[in-house]
Amino acid sequence: MSTPKEKTFESLGIIEPLCKACEQCKYKTPTEIQAEAIPWALQGRDVIGLAQTGSGKTAAFALPILQALWEAPQGLFACILAPTRELAFQISEMFESLGSVIGVRCAVIIGGMDMMSQAIALSKKPHIIIATPGRLQDHLENTKGFSLKNLKYLVMDEADKLLDMDFGPIIDKLLKVIPKERHTFLFSATMTTKVAKLQRASLMNPVKIEVSSKYSTVSTLLQYYLFFPFKHKDCYLVYLCNELAGNSLIIFTRTCNDTQRLALLLRNMGFPAIPLHGQLSQAKRLGSLNKFKAGSRNILVATDVASRGLDIPLVDVVINFDIPANSKDYIHRVGRTARAGRSGKSITLVTQYDVELYQRIEHVIGKKMDVFPIDSKDDVMLLQERVSEAQRMVTLEGSKRIKNDDDFRDKEDRDIIQSNKLVFISGIFTVGGGEWGTRGMIGVNSLPLLPSTNQTEDISHSSAHLVKRIDPVEHQSKSSTSNQEENDDVESKQPPYPTSHKDDNNKGKDDETEQNNKNNGNETQPEQLIHPDQAKENEDTAKQVKEEAMIIRKVIIVLGSLGGNGSGKRDNGGGVGNGEASMNDAFASEKSSMGNNSNSTNVMDNEVGGVNFRVVGNNEMNHETSDSVQYHHPPVQLSSIRQLTPPVQPSAPPAEKVGDTDSDIQIDNVTFSTPILTAPPAYSPTAPPIYALPHIPIPEFDGSVRDMILYMDGNNNYQLAQQQNLQNSDSRNINHNNNGTFISLHSSVSLPPLNTGVWYAAGPTSQTNTPIDVTPHQQSNHPIIIQSIHSPSNLNSQNSTSNLHSFSDSIENNENNSPTHQRHDPSII
Ligand SMILES: Nc1ncnc2c1ncn2[C@@H]1O[C@H](COP(=O)(O)OP(=O)(O)OP(=O)(O)O)[C@@H](O)[C@H]1O
Prior knowledge:
- It is a single chain.
- By secondary structure, this protein is α/β, with parallel strands linked by helices.
- The protein is built from 24 helices and 30 strands.
- It has an 8-stranded mixed sheet with strand order 3-4-2-5-6-1-7-16, sandwiched between helices.
- β10, α12 and β11 (299-302) form a beta-alpha-beta unit.
- α22 runs antiparallel to α23.
- The radius of gyration is 29 Å and the shape is globular.
- It starts with 15 loop residues before the first helix and ends in a 6-residue tail after the last helix.
- The structure holds adenosine-5'-triphosphate (ATP).
- Adenosine-5'-triphosphate (ATP) is lined by residues 27, 30-31, 34, 51, 53-59, 189, 309, 311, 335, 339-340.
- Its EC number is 3.6.4.13.
């Protein structure tokens, strides 16, 4: 038989349309698990597939099922069970992309989503159901007319997880209502060898394909550890995030509570972190994942809900903040990076309480990890004060937020703004490429598991040098690995060190609990969902935006703000109402705190059309830059637009939320803020309301302005809307007057349809502290927010961050108190 490398999908017996689909997915040759498993599956054998994380197991079971469906199409043909909801979505995407050529229809049946719409989807008899066990069981019991009595294929992805104690009883129930005459596939990177568990799956004369040893990690993964005292854990984490700035990280914690706390802590320290755990609503879980996938957040802090199966190519580093209590979880966690032949790194944080677990993991994976190189411990400890401060803030806010998650999310961006920022100075953490490599051992054997299928069949296989018979006796009598597995089960019940958090029981149960929730009437109500398709779109968009943003690579910062509440007068110090007063106070203190510094804050208020605008220009907000310096600046809003005339239609519907506070985007490590927006009420096409639009200043315009880049927020989609090369002579967009030079967005700039909310303008390459002029002049159908991004000058970054701090506080206070804010939306920040 040919070696896997010589094989093609065609030579495995895959039909032409599916081969084409593989090509479209850029699968040039089958991976080893695909090469080994597909022929058996096509022959109609039950398959147990064991292969390393990221080795293409999903297609290994999807292709044979799609082929069988093509040959004998029917509704409710196959059911794929997955332990987590996110994984179910991902598997469904894979089926859809491979099966689109044959018109496959899939339904995702998972907890946390509306039962009724799922029931409707099931009534349409999709070909493939991808489900989490609890919800599927729920439909089988409660959805009229739905049954799986004609099911032909059952797959358990992450089979060892589905067959263990948590899911076992539900699986038992499910299997009672699924026909025995079916094909069954079990796949995982860490397969159980316990016969009792495998019997649960009711396999018939299965073939076992092992493309790796039981607990192996890929060779392209560099595995490190860091050992330090427990009390410095947060500090080390922050240090690592700082060192690895620019990389995409997943940080695994033990509990939901820790996940939430760390996400808050990191955000308070200025890192774009986002939490993912089972206590979030499903919409938020998907939202978090999508933002991470799209690259708008590059730190995902997660429980083990994200440890299995998720395929996010951009993940560079996995950090085990809490060492996993179960060695299997370690394999799956670190498997979120170094996938599909790519390289990646993992760093496991080890404290005095974790040594035993750490040693066990090393033993299980059969590798010694290297210590992660850090310059000096003193460097880490330098962060202690800042970390302690952030910890205090998190403690203050944390309990409230845990109770009220919506509140948490509404304020997430403020966390960043209110915090002092780190300026990240670090080299790029390069992660080289890789190719599909030879992986471990290949073994095939026929596995007589059930008394009813007692015959054993050894299958010789040229590439199989691990050919062994696995039978009940062997399993009971052996073996270090079996023992390990039993130990794992014990391990998971005993956290290695005491923890103050109460939700330790949530570990690993993010999705298992859905059945209980249902019974208790706690089913999470669905919210507006971002379909995973959106994530792909976002990813593409983010890439595009990132590329374009290279033009302003050395750029940053934000100028000032335009506040006001519609009732104020021109005012440089007195204030208008509470909000205005606090804003002024903040500015005043900001000014005085600057002392003799020659860089000054410029505050200018304008009253235009009854609208009081406040603008601050402050070149202290600039950061020094070089290629090796990465900037995280707070998403301070430069300006907001006020509607100058009421909507024409008196019966205009109420304002509608089109964005959320957590939708800021990260481009080249520059955070672009995206406050909540309120969509304008319905417009009369003939008489649109008028909105003020600020000019973007180009102080000391010297003809060096090159680029104006506009980004559009459309329901969290970010697109490069337009790039303009502005020339001095470009009279359409550049105006000069006594106050300076301005870029303005005249209608003559050919903008794409202004059908959504936020616009960003990346502006000139030079800047001084000339005040910003704001003039309402633009008539537009939609509210527009302009943020100008300026190139840095050589100024002290620490001063600038503290200025931003008080500056943004003031914005928040002002906006919260502003009648405009109450009338329209809590948009600013
Ligand atoms: N033949 C192939 N050639 C190239 N890439 C492939 C091939 N098959 C699958 N892939 C890609 O490899 C990645 C990993 O695949 P998949 O998610 O199925 O891995 P897995 O083995 O199920 O991992 P895990 O154990 O973590 O669930 C995916 O991005 C998938 O599109």
